[in-house]
Design brief:
heterodimer, A: alpha+beta, Gyrase A, domain 2, Alpha-Beta Plaits, Elongation Factor Tu (Ef-tu), domain 3, 6-stranded mixed beta sheet, 6-stranded antiparallel barrel, about 20% helix, about 30% strand, globular, B: alpha+beta, OB fold (Dihydrolipoamide Acetyltransferase, E2P), 6-stranded antiparallel beta sheet, 3-stranded antiparallel beta sheet, 3 helices, about 15% helix
Chain lengths: ~375, ~130
């Protein structure tokens, strides 16, 4: 067995009784006690996730902005200081290499990438940077990252950093709150659960301090709910209800951003970027499968790889599915041909030889009350 | 972790108990805790044949699908419909009201090849 990577919270997870699994080469908690309980804690109170496995790259130098503009489908030039933006990194064919967040911070640009793509994307950037005056540094193993998500997340996150109080959605603040530590602490109002939430980046030595402090009974009493440690299992069911794509499932190098329903994160009018010409070409085609949401009849989830049929003919494939703890329904995301993608379309899903009815429904499946 | 003395166990985490002419089959507490958050249970119909070590049904949690394996060959005599409609209830009493099926064993079929409670304890202690 090859040695799995560990985050700075690894020992803490084990001490909490987490079940650990391999995820993108990291030994990560999939659940502590129950995926459903963790899921519902995030929907009603607050959950704490270790997301230190995600890649954190920083960029600086005079050419950093034009470089990022050239490899990102969204527009970085119009970002305000502190703003965070979601977008794709595509190859020349318009296929998605990764979906990332870019933060515009005063000392540098920060990019958060998928753990599973970090090495690939680092090598690809390295090659693209060439002789440009861009400094790129991988801070993944120097900094930890935790997410605090849920309606009580502000009350919890401000216990770590009061800068959270004034953060707008998709904005970040950078500070040096620890006098004996030269590493920055970055808080952002971002997340992957469909709830209000915060993500905090700090030097590794603060990981256990933060996790331990946030989960004390005193904090639970102060904010009116416990901050429940949540594993990757709940992270997956939460993002699925919010219909957020997951790389390797809804996104890959064969799929372009428009197929994935991410046109809002592609700015064709900002100038050239890698993949732009190919995406515009693909936009004209009518035969490319598109991402849809499905409600499946019965309690049995349709899972990744299950085929979708219309009158017995294959028209698509499921990319993620589960039994939704919030909605108490089997839900799924899938790719189907545009001819079968309209909301209300009835399809059959082949569940290991038995068929169940699946109806195309609007995404997201769940959205929080604002 | 509860592993009742009087039951016999398959390495795939099913338990079996001789109840008169029939053999009652369920899944262990260890399996229930491993699966967690059960949402769907697919059981055979009364009269269907089971063969030793072959799949007789499927159980699904929020996270994944697992096969259920028959510890002995025979014919399905009873099916626990209550668990089939509400599989989350298995967790409340996996060795009692949470049983799954009862089998009329094939001629000569016994529980002797299955693990004892002590052997099964050793297996789960080793983390399998």
């Amino acid at each position: 067995m090859t040695q799995r990577l560990q985050t700075p919270l690894h020992a803490w997870h084990v001490a909490q009784g987490a079940r650990m699994v391999d995820f993108a080469g990291f030994d990560m908690p999939v659940q502590y006690k129950s995926i459903v309980e963790e899921h519902l804690a995030v929907r009603s109170g607050a959950g704490l996730f270790d997301i230190s496995h995600m890649g954190r790259l920083i960029f600086n130098g005079p050419d950093a902005e034009p470089f990022l503009q050239s490899i990102f489908t969204n527009d970085v030039a119009t970002m305000k200081p502190g703003q965070v933006r979601y977008g794709l990194v595509c190859n020349e064919q318009g296929g998605i290499l990764d979906d990332v967040l870019i933060y515009r911070l005063a000392p540098f640009w920060l990019m958060v990438v998928n753990a599973s793509n970090r090495e690939k994307i680092l090598a690809w950037f390295q090659q693209r940077i060439g002789s440009l005056r861009v400094g790129m540094e991988d801070k993944t193993f120097d900094w930890c990252m935790v997410a605090i998500q849920g309606p009580k997340s502000l009350a919890a996150a401000r216990e770590i950093d009061t800068a959270c109080d004034s953060l707008k959605y998709y904005y970040a603040a950078l500070g040096y709150p620890n006098p004996d530590d030269m590493e920055p602490q970055i808080v952002s109002r971002t997340g992957y659960t469909g709830e209000d939430g915060f993500e905090i980046i700090a030097s590794n030595r603060w990981a256990e301090v933060m996790a331990g402090y946030l989960t004390t009974p005193q904090i639970a009493e102060r904010i009116g709910a416990p901050v429940v440690p949540c594993g990757l299992g709940a992270r997956d069911t939460l993002r699925l209800e919010a219909a957020m794509p997951l790389y390797g499932h809804e996104l890959n190098e064969e799929i372009d951003p428009l197929q994935a329903g991410l046109a809002w994160a592609v700015k064709f009018n900002k100038g050239d970027f890698v993949g732009k010409a190919a995406i515009l070409e693909r936009q004209k085609r009518k035969d490319l499968a598109v991402r849809i949401g499905l409600e499946v009849a019965g309690k049995r989830p349709a899972r990744e790889g299950y085929r979708l049929l219309a009158k017995g003919e294959p028209v698509g494939v499921v990319t993620s599915g589960t039994f939704s703890p919030t909605l108490q329904k089997a839900i799924a995301m899938a790719y189907v041909f545009p001819s079968h993608a309209a909301v209300g379309t009835l399809l059959d899903v082949d569940i290991r030889g038995q068929t169940a009815e699946a109806k195309v429904v609007p995404m997201p499946f769940y959205s929080r009350k604002k | 972790m509860q592993v009742p003395e009087q039951l016999r166990y398959a390495p795939t985490h099913e338990w079996a108990r001789q109840d008169g002419d029939l053999i009652t089959i369920g899944i262990t507490q260890y399996a229930v805790e491993l699966l967690t958050d059960l949402v769907y249970l697919d059981l055979p119909s009364v009269g269907e044949e089971t063969s030793q070590g072959a799949s007789f049904g499927e159980i699904e949690s929020v996270k994944a699908v697992s096969d259920l394996y028959a510890p002995v060959a025979g014919q399905v005599a009873e099916v626990n419909q209550e668990m089939a409609s509400e599989p989350a209830k298995i967790a409340q009493d996996p060795y009692g009201s949470g049983w799954l099926i009862k089998i009329k064993p094939a001629p000569g079929a016994t529980l002797n090849h299955l693990l004892t409670a002590e052997q099964y304890q050793q297996q789960i202690a080793a983390g399998h």
